[in-house]
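G.,

No rush on this.
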Amino acid sequence: VKGIDFDESFAPTAHATGIRTVLAVANAEDWDITQIDVEQAFLNSEMGDKEVYVMPPDGVPNPRGFAWRLRKFLYGQKDAPRAWHQTFKAWMLRYGFEVAGFDECTYILKDPNTGEVQLIVV
């Protein structure tokens, strides 16, 4: 509903200083750096308890005039970036990553057996 539930649409993004810090440490320690892109990221975000309905796009038969209930977020929804960040953060924490103290979008995983460190910047 326009004007309702839009007060929490902010999604954190990685700070330039966090990215530079990670790159500087990786360079100093001669770590490998890999970049990936999560395709259709917003479609992997959970709606939770929200119920969002949309009308079908023009040209799609809809003889009874029903609205469609979304089960996942779509690109263009105002709260989709925040939902994606919450979904991704929950996944990272579940698998043992910690949020870096200097940036909410940087995650760290330290392997106590090998000493290997994984830094992920979103």
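When you get to it, here's the other one too:
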Amino acid sequence: GLKLVVQTLLSSLKPIGNIVLICCTFFIIFGILGVQLFKGLFYHCEGDLTGVETKADCLAIPGNKWVNQKYNFDNLGHALMSLFVLSSKDGWVDIMYHGLDARGIDLQPKRNHNEWRLVYFISFLLLVGFFVLNMFVGVVVENFHRCRAEQEKEE
């Protein structure tokens, strides 16, 4: 019962540590790539958007603000936080659409401007979201079966 579960979790710590290192490697690689692709591109105009194409157009209208998205790729820290949200699959669609809509530095986003950026987000979700998560589950299940076999030998 409970002894088997605790024994499984304790024996899984070392392999899970290895998987965490693999996961961190994926996060850092995709974080650096995200900074290269999206640095400074997630800014947008808030307020009256009539005729707004650039930051200068936005700020020329009284009451408008040029602001950045909450999750962005302006530096590695922000990129890692954005990737964490992507990997949790909670709010990942908004981040992906901001990436697809981005046109350039100091340019107002345009809907689905660069659809090729979708490759970045989908590849991250497939590699990290599914592959690494399945590795975690696989390690725990494998250790569970091994611990159960050892326990049955003892009895």
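Strands lie at 43-46, 65-68. Helices lie at 2-38, 55-60, 76-88, 92-101, 118-154.

Enjoy the weekend,
O.
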